[in-house]
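the two lines:
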Amino acid sequence: MNQAPLLRVEHLTMRFGGLVAIDDVSFDAGDREITAIIGPNGAGKTTVFNCLTGFYKPTIGRLALHKAGGREFLLERMEGYRIGQTARVARTFQNIRLFPRMSVLENLLVAQHNRLMRASGYTLFGLFGLPVYRQAEAHAVDVARYWLDRIGLTPRADEDAGNMPYGDQRRLEIARAMCTEPILLCLDEPAAGLNARESAELNEMLRFIRDEHKIGVLLIEHDMSVVMKISDHVVVLDYGRKISDGTPEFVRKDPAVIRAYLGEDEDEALPPEVAADLGSRG
Amino acid sequence: MEYFLQQLINGVTLGAIFGLIAIGYTMVYGILGMVNFAHGDVFMIGGFVAVITFLILGVLGLTWVPFALLCMLLIAMVFTGVHGWAVERIGYRALRNSNRLAPLISAIGMSIFLQNYVQLLQGARNKAIPPMISGGVELMTSPTGFTVKFGYMQMVIIAVTTVLMVGFSLLIARTSMGRQQRACEQDMRMARLLGVDVDRTISLTFIMGAALAAVAGMIWLLYYGIIDFYVGFLAGIKAFTAAVLGGIGSLPGAMLGGLLIGLIEVFWSAYFSVEYKDVAAFAILVLVLIFRPTGLLGQPDIEKV
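prediction for all of em together
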């Protein structure tokens, strides 16, 4: 094992009092790969994200992020904002959490504030409009523009983010996460509430992020058409335990997964219409 | 008419002071959802730092007025900013995630502490300074012999306040730091996820609010020529009223509210009775809370679903 994976989760356990939300889960998420975490409701998917992004301190476990160049970050030991700032893990939420009373452009600029703050000498130079700061600001706006073009919101850049249609808000949230220049992007149900066309656009965007920006994407998703189409690697959770881990094809045929989703007998085959449905979506 | 104009000038001057203090209340409320009751006393400390600076400059013989004023202003802002930072760091940060009542009680405690701290160190007696800027322009004289006078002091106050408020609004609207503050105000956890150092942003908010209050404290000192350790209580409560009137959490609201409270108080004193001027200001607070709880420019809180 000379090549460490981008993210290695080992023996992650999260207990809330007597409730075990995640029980000894280990998996890897690779660089330039889309890793999907799937599972029935309450399986602990979002809890995994919350542990990764510092919302919860795991009861047990090691969450190691390996940066190119060999630096390793142990996310479970880092303070909240450093996970975004230094380790460069970005995330979106199931329910959209944009800054609704800031403009679309500003939402993207906030995400780039670390570079801006440094360039502005913690605002001192910015007050006097020194060239270093103006260059940094111009660069930040360029990055924001690039993403605005990508998600087709350039004409509405100065409107309040809260006034955008739902699908645009979803993509804006992903764009904002990308503006932090993450090496791991965690998306919590990005396709929830999207129609078929928007969902297809989302797939396109995620592939683009993986292939052009060369980062790892970790995805929680219920929409199987998204999962099966775009993920390189699927991890299945049920009741806080990992029950399957592999390629989409492998996971789809794994009896343990079928059992968890459909709750049927071990030796009974998948009902033909369900199999057909899964197959056609894949 | 002349009398009205004179009161208008006086009211705007007083309103400028309240507006500067109100900004501190409104920013802290916006970001933390708490009322920083110690803010009035931070304002008082600003005045005291200005007195002390004035005396030291006098001892050193540096009495050229513009230089002395600038020195007093900068030193008051810096030292009071440190006090503002310390209040948050000691009194509020540890309580940030507890229930809403705890920081409120802590704020009242901080207020009492700051008053007694200044009383102990500086004594309970009034501190006075001689007028540094006197004279003014006589705008007009009425047939009855009443002269409208726009003092140079008042001009300086209004000019300094306008410059500070414009600059501060630009800082919040345009700079990366201002964006961070607004982001923390709207969704602190999300801001943290984007790598914003929330603790530092909150500290900066307190420092900036305290620095503006220091300017107000110094202006108060210059305008009235006198200051004591208890002055922050009433001025602070009135500035808080101003922030609520304008819509707490809203920056332009705080400025507008300050101006209105200043005008109300001055006009009430001019046309009704000086004794009841505080009643007038607080009656406004009651009316606003009853009929327009979000204030003039405030937005209603929309519950997240």
